[in-house]
# Entry
Amino acid sequence: MLALSACSVPNGVSQGSSPESFQIAERESIHKADAVDSQAVEKVNDIILPPEIVTKALQKSAGSCMVSRGHSLRDWYYMPRPESVRDIVVPVPLSVEAARDTGYISLRSIRTGEREKEYAFSEAEARDYYGYENGNSCQAEAWDKVFGDKDLSALYFQTGKYMLPYVNAAITSDDAVAIDGEWSVCMKDKGYDYSSPSKAIVSVVNKSEAYEVAVADATCREQVRFEERTEEILDAYMTTFLNDNQALLERVAQAKKNAEANAPKILDGAAS
# Structure
């Protein structure tokens, strides 16, 4: 298993000017909880993921900013957001049914980075939206408007960098290595020599055998209970994350609460 990196902060979004100081844990010092909360991943996701109304408010605010700078209003704007715990772990889930239907094509998820490419900006639009030249970006302005505070918007956006060491600790743990090992043995029985699903996926990209490998991969994942056990490991380490970062998560929850309160006003046009 591998972990994707946490999102970078958009130009113009505060990157730590807040007097609050939260430390990023060292992966080597992180251990799974002795008393595991089986809903830990769900609890973390509930804190860090914005509801749809907040996303819509962010997009509307970004659109208003772009129009104020002389650009046409788009129906949809790419808006980076914190990712769920499972979203930053690869490989993404793959069922036997999905593999039989489309092979690895089913793994081409609509991640925000991929969707962004569908809405290519002109050079002038990109300059104002991302703030490439002066950091004065409509993207950052939207975040600050919806969250109502520069430091809170930055903290909310950067939650992933505090969570990532715990995810990395989970997926490099002995328990995770054991799952990959059992999966690899299963794959060898089917005639394939890969150390992990991630290695298999990368090895067969755009190759004729990709479909057969995908089906074997999914079958072996099901046999070793890959997804269920991965979720159990993540729950163990997210329990530690919750225990270690109570003050941080209280502030992140406050940021989300602010955004949820501001979003309806923005969507109704009541917010200036």
Confidence is low (pLDDT under 50) at residues 109-114.
